[in-house]
TrEMBL record:
GO biological process, one term: protein K6-linked ubiquitination
GO cellular component term of the entry, any: BRCA1-A complex
GO terms of molecular function: ubiquitin-protein transferase activity
Protein name: Serine/threonine-protein phosphatase 6 regulatory ankyrin repeat subunit C-like isoform X3
Length: 687
């Protein structure tokens, strides 16, 4: 324990000496004195005179040369006495210099600087004169093993401290390097909006290599890293290599150095994207040339089958397209969906690349797996200059894809008039239908492209050419409410009453969707207001079903038959009652609708209103003379139907209007019997 205490004192003193050596002279006031305090009273006086605080202690002992006594306040309570024949000894509360004293450790006594703080009682190692003489005798007889052991321990401790300080310094240096590299790499990563973060995936050397790519030319530093064992083919979790990064940022010399050090020129990421793909995407011509010079596979496709040529065509890099073609890129190599580079260039509207591909024998009529040709693609995206280029290079103007859709269909669908005119000028078949029978005119009418419709009509389009469901262009225009197209078609001889395969007329369809202005146009052009479909449903029926009050009034004003029934005997009033459109019921009644007109099963409008629980409609019918006791062919009265469905409010309304509670069905059941039975069932369930 004593040895451990001594070791602590030694280490602390070393720190003290280290601090003193940092400055010239002392860091605190030091004074010479003729004598040290010889009693506790003198000690306290000296301490007060020096203003020693609670954290420091008054001290008095010989200087290093033992030529004089010095006194001072110092924050450390532990001091070391230099080796000298004379040393400090404490006896009877006094400091005295004694001869024959070897180097000893002592602890200073912290005095009380204030009456409320008495001096602390600490263990003091006392060397009396007797002890000193005893030590001298022992030294003469045998070696001082304690001193030897202590010295060895000191040496070991000092060595350990030195090693720890060295390791700490190295770690600090490495940490600073990592922080510096990390900042550089973060700058690289900020630019990489498409890449995957690799900070957690790669080592310090490789991160550093990536960070060097941020700088324009730093091949020396990169070479050092490569020489120190950096993995030139290291990839992140997405499989993106350092080579990919260099290609993306256009670092020519960096790329050259990586290739010279064995980087795999065709190393692909997990999506199958090669460095050449990346360089083609970002438009770095010199990088592409360097990769090709290093035997990059010009036709290596990614997992979707996209080649570098596809990529260059997509992003519109003409010079790179030429480079690839000069290095035997397959101009007709398609990816998995059958899309060729020419398709891609046509889609993105790169005229010069289209011309370049055609000059290098691209197949102008090569279709994808759905049968879509480059001409279809150009028509779809509205690139009229490319359409002209393709037509000039013998593109088949009537080549249809698998659904039978021609380029003219496509152009008409999107309303690209200039392309439509180009196609027509190049002998496109204006009446060529798809597999569903739809003509180009049909598509233009469906989408309301009036100018396109006019172009087609001017070039001989059949205005009444129907598809396989017998849907005419006029029908399509009415369905979607394109009034301008409707008028244009009717002005060009469209049959206003041409029905579809189920007998639904354009007027009927316009009524369904509430196209008031379209209905008005049709009626003004002699549309048959009472033309029914194959089930006998008239335009008025349809309008009553969907609740379009204004169109009901328009039809009635144009002599629609208010009591015209369908094939099951259902009148427009029945339909309005079924759906609870009270305002339409009132309109029909105001226009002489028969309130008691029954269908083929004898069901009256009042039956229907009771069946569907429309209380306000029931009241309206009763107020307009509906027969409250009119039964259907099975003898069921409106009251019976209301009781059957337990519509209490309607039952009461019917009773208030004279409904016969004992009126029986053909089975002999009356509303009263039925109501009693229901009441009994509820009563039985409650017990």
């Amino acid at each position: 324990m004593e040895l451990l205490s001594s070791l602590l004192v030694f280490l602390t003193s070393c720190l003290l000496f280290h601090d003193c050596r940092k400055l010239d002279g002392y860091k605190f006031p030091v004074y010479t004195t003729e004598s040290c305090p010889e009693s506790e009273i003198e000690w306290n006086k000296k301490s007060s005179a020096f203003n020693c605080s609670k954290e420091s202690s008054y001290a008095c002992f010989p200087n290093n040369e033992t030529t004089e006594l010095i006194e001072f306040c110092y924050p450390l309570r532990i001091i070391i006495i230099p080796y000298d024949p004379s040393c400090v000894s404490l006896g009877d509360g006094c400091f005295v210099a004694e001869p024959f004293c070897k180097r000893k450790w002592i602890k200073s006594i912290r005095p009380a600087t204030h009456p409320s703080h008495p001096p602390t009682k600490e263990t003091v190692l006392i060397n009396t004169k007797k002890n000193a003489e005893k030590d001298v005798n022992l030294n003469g007889e045998q070696p001082d093993w304690t001193l030897i052991t202590t010295s060895c321990v000191y040496l070991i401790v000092v060595s350990v401290i030195v090693i720890i300080l060295y390791i700490r310094k190295k770690r600090t240096s490495v940490r600073r390097d990592i922080e510096s590299v990390g900042m550089l790499f973060l700058q690289v990563e900020e630019e990489d909006t498409e890449g995957t973060s690799v900070r957690r995936d790669i080592g310090l050397q490789s991160v550093t290599m990536l960070s060097r790519l941020k700088e324009e030319e730093n091949t020396e530093a990169l070479q050092k890293l490569l020489d120190s064992g950096g993995n030139v083919n290291l990839c992140d979790k997405a499989g993106v290599s350092i080579l990919h990064k260099a290609c993306k940022m256009g670092r020519y010399h960096t790329l050259q150095l990586l290739l010279e050090n064995g980087a795999d020129v065709d190393l692909c990421d997990k999506a199958g994207v090669s460095p050449l793909h990346t360089a083609c995407q970002y438009g770095h011509d010199s990088i592409v040339q360097l990769l090709l010079n290093n035997r990059a596979d010009v036709n290596l496709c990614d997992k979707a089958g996209v080649s570098p040529l596809h990529t260059a065509c997509q992003y519109g890099h003409d010079s790179i397209v030429q480079l690839l073609l000069n290095n035997r890129a397959d101009v007709n190599l398609c990816y998995k969906a059958g899309v060729s580079p020419l398709h891609t260039a046509c889609q993105y509207g790169h005229d010069s690349i289209v011309q370049l591909l055609l000059n290098n024998r691209a197949d102008v009529n090569l279709c994808d797996k759905a049968g879509v040709s480059p001409l279809h693609t150009a028509c779809q995206y509205g690139h009229d200059s490319i359409v002209q280029l393709l037509l000039n290079n013998r593109a088949d103007v009537n080549l249809c894809y698998k659904a039978g859709v021609s380029p003219l269909h496509t152009a008409c669908q999107y309303g690209f008039d200039r392309i439509v005119q180009l196609l027509l000028n190049n002998r496109a078949d204006v009446n060529l239908c798809d597999k569903r029978g739809g003509s180009p005119l049909n598509r233009a009418c469906q989408n309301g492209h009036d100018s396109t419709v006019q172009l087609l009509l001017n070039n001989g389009a059949d205005v009444n050419l129907c598809d396989k469901r017998v849907v005419s262009p006029l029908y399509k225009a009415c369905y979607n409410g394109h009034d301008g197209t409707v008028k244009l078609l009717m002005d060009n001889g469209a049959d206003v009453n041409l029905c579809d395969e189920t007998g639904v007329s354009p007027l009927n369809r316009a009524c369904q969707y509430g196209r008031y202005s379209t209905v008005s146009l049709l009626l003004n052009n002699e549309a048959d207001v009472n033309l029914c479909d194959e089930t006998g449903v008239s335009p008025l029926h349809t309008t009553c079903q969907y609740g379009h009050d204004s169109i009901v009034q328009l039809l009635l004003n144009n002599r629609a038959d208010v009591n015209l029934c369908d094939k099951t005997g259902v009148s427009p009033l029945h339909t309005a009652c079924q759906y609870g459109h009270d305002s339409i019921v009132q309109l029909l009644l105001n226009n002489r609708a028969d309130v008691n007109l029954c269908d083929k099963t004898g069901v009256s409008p009042l039956h229907t209103a009771c069946q569907y629980e429309h209380e306000s409609t029931v009241r309206l019918l009763l107020n307009n003379g509906a027969d409250v006791n009119l039964c259907d062919k099975t003898g069921v009265s409106p009251l019976y139907r209301a009781c059957q469905n337990e519509y209490g409010r309607i039952v009461q309304l019917l009773l208030d209007n004279g409904a016969d509670i004992n009126l029986c069905t053909e089975n002999g059941d009356s509303p009263f019997f039925f109501a009693s039975q229901k009441s009994h069932e509820r009563f039985s369930k409650s017990y």
